[in-house]
C-alpha cells in the first residue's frame, strides 16, 4: 500500500487535500496530511520539521511518495533531505524548488516579492502575509471560491525568506515535477533544475481543489512507477 504524504501550500491547510485524499483512499492508498500551521509562527525550517516528523510515522508495507504543492515544494525537499531513507519518490505540484541556500524570495520575480513584503508590512504586522483572493490561485467557480475564501489563512513571512537547508541527500531521491498550464511561474524550470522529470498538467494552480480527479490519477501513476504520458490521468 503506497503512502502519500500530501503537504499543502502557503495560505492553505490540510483541508486542501481532502478531495484528492478521498480518491486516493478509494484506490487503496494511505494518506498523511501534515498541518504546517501547527507550527504557529514558524517558517520554512519549522515546516520542514513538521513534515519530517510525519515521515517518521510512515512505517508499514509499500512505498512513500512525498507530495508538495506550491510553497511546499521547498518544504518537502528540505524534509526529505532530513529523512532520505523514508521517501521513495518526491512529487512537486506547481512547486517552488531550489538549491541549498535559496529561499522562495530568491526564486520569485521582483513583483511577487514586493507584493508579499508590502502585504506583510501593511496588513500583517511585518511577520504575517494575509491571504490573497481565491482568484490568485486560479480558483474562479462560485462555489469553490466561497469554499476557499472561508479557509485561507495568513502565512508567516519567514516561509518566504528563510533559505533552504539541503545536505545533498535529497538529490538521491527521484522526483517528478508537474507544472500547471497556463503557466504562472516557471515551475517547470524549477523542477528541471533540481533534476526532476517534468510533466505538464492542464489545470489551475490550485489543482488539488479544482481538478482532484486528474491529480489523483497522476499521483497513482507516478507511484506505480509507470511513466505518465502527456494528457494521461
Short synopsis of the structure:
With 233 residues, the protein is α/β, with parallel strands linked by helices.
Q: CATH homologous superfamily of the domain at 3-102 and 163-224 - what is it? A: Alpha/Beta hydrolase fold, catalytic domain
The largest sheet is: 6 strands, parallel
Quote the distance from N terminus to C terminus. Answer: 20 Å
Strand content: 15-25%
Sheet with the most strands: spatial strand order: 2-1-3-4-7-8
Strand tally: 8
Mean pLDDT: 94
The CATH class name of the domain at 3-102 and 163-224 reads: Alpha Beta
Secondary-structure-based class equals alpha/beta
Quaternary structure state of the chains depicted: single chain
General shape: globular
- What's the Cα radius of gyration? 16 Å
CATH architecture of the domain at 3-102 and 163-224: 3-Layer(aba) Sandwich
Tally of contiguous helical segments: 10
CATH-defined topology of the domain at 3-102 and 163-224: Rossmann fold
Note the run of SSEs as H and E: EHEHEHEHHEHEHEHEHH
Helix percentage range: 25-40%
Low-confidence parts lasting 5 or more residues at pLDDT below 50? none
Can you offer a commentary on this structure?
- With 233 residues, the chain is an alpha/beta fold.
- It has a domain at 3-102 and 163-224: Rossmann fold, CATH 3.40.50.
- 37% of the residues lie in helices and 15% in strands.
- It is built from ten helices and eight strands.
- It has helices at 18-26, 44-55, 72-82, 104-107, 110-123, 142-149, 158-161, 187-193, 207-210, 212-224; strands at residues 3-7, 30-32, 64-69, 89-93, 128-129, 155-156, 175-181, 197-202.
- The chain has a six-stranded parallel beta sheet with strand order 2-1-3-4-7-8, with helices on both faces.
- The mean pLDDT is 94.
Amino acid at each position: 500500500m503506497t503512502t502519500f504524504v500530501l503537504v499543502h501550500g502557503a495560505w492553505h491547510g490540510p483541508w486542501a487535500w481532502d478531495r484528492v485524499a478521498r480518491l486516493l483512499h478509494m484506490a487503496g492508498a494511505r494518506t498523511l496530511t501534515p498541518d504546517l500551521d501547527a507550527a504557529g509562527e514558524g517558517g520554512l525550517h519549522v515546516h520542514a520539521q513538521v513534515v519530517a516528523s510525519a515521515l517518521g510515522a510512515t512505517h508499514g508495507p509499500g512505498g512513500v511518495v512525498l507530495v508538495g504543492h506550491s510553497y511546499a515544494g521547498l518544504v518537502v525537499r528540505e524534509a526529505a533531505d532530513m529523512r532520505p531513507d523514508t521517501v521513495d519518490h518526491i512529487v512537486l505540484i506547481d512547486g517552488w524548488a531550489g538549491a541549498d541556500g535559496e529561499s522562495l524570495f530568491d526564486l520569485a520575480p521582483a513583483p511577487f516579492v514586493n507584493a508579499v513584503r508590502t502585504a506583510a508590512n501593511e496588513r500583517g504586522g511585518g511577520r504575517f502575509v494575509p491571504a490573497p483572493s481565491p482568484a490568485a490561485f486560479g480558483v474562479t467557480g462560485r462555489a469553490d471560491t466561497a469554499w476557499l475564501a472561508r479557509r485561507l489563512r495568513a502565512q508567516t513571512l519567514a516561509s518566504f525568506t528563510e533559505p533552504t537547508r539541503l545536505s545533498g541527500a535529497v538529490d538521491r531521491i527521484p522526483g517528478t515535477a508537474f507544472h500547471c498550464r497556463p503557466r504562472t511561474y516557471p515551475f517547470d524550470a524549477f523542477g528541471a533544475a533540481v533534476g526532476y522529470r517534468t510533466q505538464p498538467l492542464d489545470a489551475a494552480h490550485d489543482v488539488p481543489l479544482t481538478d482532484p480527479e486528474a491529480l489523483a490519477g497522476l499521483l497513482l501513476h507516478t507511484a506505480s512507477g509507470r511513466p505518465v504520458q502527456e494528457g494521461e490521468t
